[in-house]
Amino acid sequence: MEKKRIEDTLTSFYEEYRDENAELFEKDIFAQSMLKAIKSGDKELIHKNVKETKVFDEKWIETLESYFPSIDLIMRNPKSGLKYEDEVVAIEKARKVDAKSIRHLSANTHLIKEVKGEDIRPKKILTTYSEIDYQTYENRMVASLIDRLFYFVRSRYEVIKEFGDSYQNKTLSFKADFPLNEVRLSFDLKLNIKEEPEDASINKYNHEILERVKRLEILVSGFKRSKFMEALKSAPKVRTPIMKTTAIMQNPNYKNCYMLWLFLDRYNTLAFETVIEEKDMSLDGEYLESVYNNMIVGLSSILYYQEQRRQEFNIFDKIKKAKSIKVIKDLDVNPFLEEDIDIEDYSVNQFYLEQSRKLFEQALEYHESTSSTHEVALRKALRETLEFSNALYEDFFEFQKEDDIFRRLVDSLTPEEELTQLREMAKVAKIIREVKEVDYRKSVAFERRLLNRIAKLDQHFINHSKRGILSFVEMQKEEMTLKNEKERSLREAELLSEEIKKTQETNIELARLAKSVDRQFKKIERDHKRNLRRALRELERELRQVHQTKVKEIEEKHQIVIDNIEKERRERIEALTAKFVLAKERLAAEEAIKLKTKKEIDEQIYAQEIETLELKSLEEQERLKKEYVITEKELKKETKELTRKRKSEDSIAVKFIGSKKVDITLFGSSPKIAELLSKKKKKGSTLLRVIKKKKF
To answer: Of 116, 209, 225, 298, whose CB is crowded by the most CB atoms within 10 A?
Structure first.
């Protein structure tokens, strides 16, 4: 049968490509040789159409849709009660006075304003107001149910929206493994086309379910925003177990809400069914030939760019005989969703409570049939329940591993790791014991309340019997029976108190044992710290020796630097001293010149020259002093640099520099120079006085 021709861009492109390259593939040597090599190797072919269909369960949707009218009716007309509140108000504001108001006024006489005879006029009085209360237990149960429904529907809507579409895959996989000269080539072609299923009703069904769930979500969101939920906004939430009140059991709407609560506890998954259909598709000769040609083109494009091996594929050795294609019909298909999705995780809920109660009732019935009395059967059933809880603790926390000798031989645990594990197990055991003690104390308190209630009722019954018509003898017998029962109740209460004391003593013993373990651990810790301090001291001693050696080397280097500076300082002082001696000699020569030329020159000119020489002498002295000060500052700066490097030598350096400083200052302003300068000044002033006298 000839294939029907379709005119489109894909057809025109492929036919043009095929027609232009048909002659090349038929006549080209490389193409023919490569085709023979491919056919001579191992080949696997997969050509299938896989259809995956997911059908979600709509039972839970129908259940919610059937129960929603009851929730709507309750929200429109909720059950209410009267809430009474007492308040002391001014007498003018009191609307209603009852016996309770009179009793309160008699107990609080300070509220009385005045008394005139038999008339009493109060200032304030207790009055009772009543208002409608919607925060009943039944309404709080419905509000909690709406909160659960909101998350229940929202989570399932998200899952169906993400994974609800069905699809079909068209898969073509062709693998070839064949030898070519000295190498072996492998080729793996895989094409997967994912598209909508041919049967559009499948996705239509899932889309309808999604729309129904969306409508449920809109309804529940409306419930959340209703006035009913606003009125119960501050009310405490209801948790499992649900109390079966008269309104819940007899009112059909509230009973439907209770049944819906049980359904939510039981239905914590999203059930669906996945159907996978596989169909082998035919592959004719023309199709297979195009696959071979595509393999040749792909291999040649890759081999072409293998520069170092291109020559290797120019020559073809003798090619083996062609092999048939291995067609694989079984395709492993892994559906995206293999099993139901767990959405809610209710560890304890009403459904599990109902199931546990049924199991306890069955165990009690079994033991009643095999035991002598009801009390014995009840004890056995309760003991089995407690043993189940203890086995749960032991299995979860792996308490039995502590006594497993074989495990201790195999596991190579260090003492520190084993000690850590034992401490963790001791903590868990302590927590379990404390929880059981709290439960035990609650049971004792509950039993004590019951015994006190029995004693009160016995006393009430005794008092009532005294006023009855019973005979004195029967009354005495009944009184004695009730007294004996009262004494037994009191005795049992005393025994319970003794058991509590024993429990407290056990707690004290455990605390003392824990303190002993802590003391041993602290002793080990102290020994460890002592050894650590000893090791630190030895290490510190070694480091101190190394430090002293390095400090000694630094001191030696520092002493060499100080000696060099001192030598340079002495040389500078000697140079300054020589300069000062030269200056003194020059001044002496100038003084001699003054004496020689004193008689030859005019007295006024002589006085001016004397003043000029004195000024020059003073300038020379100032210059020498400045030069000395600069030199002294440089020496101080260098000395400070050295003293900063080694603070321990501060006192020596200061003493050394201080002594030298005193010598220098004495040298710079010696008594001889001071005496010489004073003589010069005196001579100059005498000469000036002589000149002035001669002028006058």
So the answer is: 209
